Design the sequence.
């Protein structure tokens, strides 16, 4: 594709819809049988050759379908704008940054009450539950398909041709649970998601970075629910090459006030991750004019304190969710763009 043919704005995302059981739905709202998921995705998804970075976005609590797509587009548009305005701040992206996205949508609507929060918490759990929920299976197939269809960014010939494609995961709120479940399922033996078939030791499936804004999960989730994300003596760990980055803000009432009452402890989105099987690093969400030092994001788990920026307005601070959705801002795009750069 010539330079003139490259998109100058972020294209509309491709959407993938799940129902309350986590089953994949067609555009006509018909459930896709389990044995046809891979075929359905292969028919619908075509990774554009011009894309340098593939972003998969899963939304959170009380997000209408149209809003989910707009949120992903806004975040990537801000990231593209930052790179276009000051490419010198992102030297790793000297070959360009042309994002393309897939948005996973699921039924997250409820009343902004404790009962509504519990309803969506339970739905998110049932959509991912072993032997019951389809969401990790479907999202896993999605990631496997994207991995198989992308051009390997680590091949020297690809880098020379500037066609390497990197895969990044972004979630908000309960959407982070689905992404963690999908990555964790990929580490099971025997394989259940069809990743990297046939297996090639030179290029195992990898996610290049994972960024979860205001995760709606208990602080001890990474020892209680997602320990297999990380390698151990008994387990190979999930195919996550880059860091797992988690933002938190004390102004987030959804994962603070409501989460505390629903699960008897504040959520990660309010207080950051608690105990984990791997060492963690803590840092602060930076402004767009301040580069992240190289060592800050190069850890298995990174907690990012966003108290100073994810504050919401005076009105939203008093709302049931508080600043839970106050992440659609340039500083978040700066963090996302930096993760994309450091994946090179």
Sequence:
């Amino acid at each position: 594709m010539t330079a003139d043919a490259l998109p100058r704005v972020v294209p509309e995302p491709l959407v993938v819809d799940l129902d309350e059981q986590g089953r994949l739905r067609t555009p006509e709202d018909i459930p896709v049988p389990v044995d046809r998921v891979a075929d359905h995705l292969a028919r619908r998804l075509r990774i554009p050759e011009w894309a340098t970075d593939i972003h998969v976005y899963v939304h959170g609590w009380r997000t209408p379908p149209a809003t989910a797509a707009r949120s992903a587009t806004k975040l990537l548009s801000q990231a593209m704008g930052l790179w276009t305005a000051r490419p010198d701040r992102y030297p790793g992206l000297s070959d360009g940054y042309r994002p393309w996205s897939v948005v996973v949508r699921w039924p997250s609507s409820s009343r902004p009450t404790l009962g509504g929060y519990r309803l969506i918490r339970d739905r998110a759990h049932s959509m991912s539950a072993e032997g019951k929920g389809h969401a990790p299976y479907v999202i896993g197939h999605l990631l496997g398909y994207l991995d198989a269809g992308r051009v390997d960014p680590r091949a020297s010939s690809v880098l020379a041709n500037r066609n390497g494609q990197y895969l990044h995961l972004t979630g908000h709120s309960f959407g982070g649970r689905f992404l963690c479940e999908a990555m964790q399922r990929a580490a099971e033996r025997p394989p259940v998601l069809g990743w990297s078939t046939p297996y090639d030791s030179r290029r195992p499936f990898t996610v290049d970075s994972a960024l979860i804004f205001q995760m709606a999960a208990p602080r001890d989730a990474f020892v209680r629910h997602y320990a297999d994300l990380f390698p151990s003596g008994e387990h190979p760990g999930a195919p996550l090459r880059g860091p797992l980055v988690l933002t938190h803000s004390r102004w987030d009432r959804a994962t603070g006030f409501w989460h505390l009452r629903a699960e008897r402890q504040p959520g990660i989105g309010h207080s950051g991750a608690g105990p984990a099987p791997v060492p963690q690093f803590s840092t602060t969400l930076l402004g767009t004019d301040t580069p992240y030092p190289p060592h800050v994001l190069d850890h298995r788990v990174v907690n990012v304190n966003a108290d100073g920026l994810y504050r919401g307005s005076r009105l939203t601070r008093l709302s049931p969710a508080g600043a839970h959705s106050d992440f659609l801002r340039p500083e978040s795009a700066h963090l996302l763009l930096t993760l994309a750069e450091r994946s090179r």
In short: Residues 156-162, 189-204 have pLDDT under 50 and may be disordered. The first strand starts at residue 14 and ends at 18. Residues 65-85 form the longest helix (21 residues).
